[in-house]
Prior knowledge:
The structure holds two protein chains of two kinds. Chain A has helices at about 15-20, 25-30, 35-70, 75-85, 90-100, 105-125, 130-140, 145-175, 185-195, 200-225, 230. Chain A is mostly helical. Chain A has one domain: MetI-like fold (Orthogonal Bundle), CATH 1.10.3720. In chain A, about 35% of the residues are buried. Chain B is of the alpha/beta class. Chain B folds into two domains: about 10-250, Rossmann fold (3-Layer(aba) Sandwich); about 260-320, Roll (CBS-domain). In chain B, about 35% of the residues lie in helices and about 20% in strands. Chain B is built from 14 helices and 13 strands. In chain B, the strands form three sheets. In chain B, strands 6-7-8-3-9-10 form a six-stranded mixed β-sheet, sandwiched between helices. In chain B, a hairpin with a 3-residue loop joins strand 9 and strand 10 (about 225-230). The N and C termini of chain B lie far apart (about 50 Å). Chains A and B meet through helix 7 and helix 8 of A and helix 2, strand 6, helix 4 and helix 7 of B.
Amino acid sequence: MTSAGPVIPNFGEGSDCVTENRLFCTDWARDNWGGVLQPALVQHVELTAIAVGVGALIALGVALLTHRYPLLERPFGAFSAIVYTIPSLALFQLLVPVTGLTVTTVEVALVGYTLLILYRNALEGLRAAPPDVLEAARGMGLTPRQTLLRIQLPLALPAVIAGLRVAVVSTIALATVAALVIPQGLGYPIFLALREYFKTEIIAAGGLAVALALAADGLLVVVQRALVPWARTRRTA
Amino acid sequence: MRAPRQAVEIVFDHATKRYPGRAVPAVDDLSLRIPAGEICCLVGPSGGGKTTAMKLVNRLVELTSGDVRVDGRSVRSLDETELRRGIGYVIQQVGLFPHLTVAENVATVPRLLRWSKSQVAERVDELLDLVDLPARDYRGRYASQLSGGERQRVGLARALAADPPLMLMDEPFGALDPITRTRLQRELLRIQRELRKTIIFVTHDIDEAILVGDRIAILREGGKLAQYDTPDALLARPGDDFVARFVGADRGIKRLSLKTLAEIELDPLDGVVAPSAPDGTTLRDALSLMLSAGSPRLVVLDGDGGAPRGVLTLERLSELLT
């Protein structure tokens, strides 16, 4: 199935730690970093980045449509909420007959789960511009398009980034389940290690997923600070 | 620095605004002429249509019938975006763009008009100086870092940025505390002495209208014009009971606040001994001084602490009001 498959512990050659399947064997993690853990981590980042990226584009586009035509809010809101409630295993089952055991199946599902949070936050963000700000913009001769680009979209950033943080963290967690469909991501070593109940590999891959989530969240906080400088500075008395 | 643009005349010509489904028009057959370079205050009770009347000028509200002409041209014939970019707009809640710095806020319209970067930067500093916010300290701040008074100063600078010949101000100082409000009213008058814009100034506060306006239009419920006159004429000769009630029973006293001691004829000194006041004092404050000192006479000084110029008597004050 894949060339970069995990190393099933060879109890004959492994260290005592591995042979006895102790809680965590540093030597195994070190030896299998390049062969197992690192590729899985990179794949996991890719799966997440594509899912959140595509999800964000769709959500923002739909939010812009909804903002323009408020009648669409109910159907779009209901659709994304329903997708969100489908259990991930069931959703994979539904998609496999259509898209097969492919990355597409995984991404379609992951994108679906990001939509609810990203769409709601993008819409809330677009509505964040206070009425007096919009009136001033109109009175000064900004066209509706200029108001959207220069005022409403920048003011939507805090809510959009808050949505991205939740979506990224939950997608990183959810993407481990992708191993049921394709041999990729941090879920795959966990999936294989579960057969032998090889603790080190489960903890290493699981720990990496947690670390990745924390790092991504931290990165977005930094991005938010850079892009939303006006929210950082409160009035100095 | 460019020469300030010539102010323009504004004419309301049977201007009417009806909202569908409402029996009473918001603005009813309003006709008045605001001469170039003057401040016209629109005052009246809520429901009098003063804000609606003002918004007819920049077409935030569209006319139902009649016309509004700016510099002889009907607003209906102008592109609304261009029209608005040529009109300074100041509102009570200011509406500063929270994600932009003070400098970027002020630069909004010049940028829309595609001024060069250096022109914009120069203009921003000039305007911040004009509204008494040192550019060096304030340029980079956000609205959240400003007090209410500072925000409205920035709002004023932003409205003046492209040097529009006409300004619309909708209760600009209504949300400020009394001390800040008085300071900003005086600053507006100082700036107006320099710039000579045509300004439509909406307020519900008759005292503010008397202080700020060259002319005052009083609107009553249903958007009808009750009276349009100078503050002095309005206080001296209210046209009907509604106007008389609106300007207040103390309109005589209010009239006294329109003039200072320097502007009236005084009686000779003749060695009178009485309390004294500088000639920059309003007649109203002078009267208050005389009443509280229990003196029927007041010695008027040439400037603060200068030589005595003459004597004001209670008789003279009451002559001025009749």
